[in-house]
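ok trying this again, last paste got cut off
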Amino acid sequence: MTFINRTLIEQELERLQNDKSFQDVVSNIKAGKFERNQAHKDYKDRVDYTMELRNFLYNPAVLNMIFTDQELKTTFFRTFGYKGNVNFTIYPKCWLRDLPLLDIGENVYLGDNILLGTNQVTPDQKSLLVGKIKIGDNCIFNQGCSVGGKTTIGADGIIGFQVGIGFRNTIGKEVKIGERSTIGHGNKIGNQVTISYLCKIGHFCVIEDGVVLDEMTEVPSYSLVTKDGIYPRRKKLASVKPIGRALRIAK
């Protein structure tokens, strides 16, 4: 499908809005675990939804026209089931799935090549894990970032170039994550945390409020990170020595 002007884009969006069967598909996009079998309605609906969405996502020229026209942008997001705020910046080279599962805050900046990965295939490739992504107001994502599903990011965060954030993370307010750092799965990161560039955070870690990690710090999975050091999360006692000291106190 090729669009050449605004009128054709409007007509295609209107067609999708008035297509009751497609809007039923949109209303069935939800979080959960789904077997990759089109004999199952939930997965078949996901496939049908994705095929229509790809007609736009695989055409950056069309997205450029949509994203630079607030009326078209609102119509596009609403057509595909997005219910949240639409006052955010996004660029055509993006990858979005499951718009009904996104909640993007006011004045958020999503740089080129952003990936909001609301779904993830299981290691055996038999199922999809699908979860919501919520981004607080005034967050900035620089180019090439990726965010996994079931993740919440608080307001006023700054996420650097090519940062990867995994599945099921909770990140507080005013968090800064430096360029090319990676955040694994299932972590809880407090407010006003700074993670400098090229850091690697494992899985299921807790980073307390106000911690500042120096460049290239590696935090093992199941760690507790305080302003005093990095500890094994399951053995945090007064007598336990920290396993890392590659951090400094926030001023």
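PB: full thing came through this time. The two ends are 55 Å apart (CA to CA).
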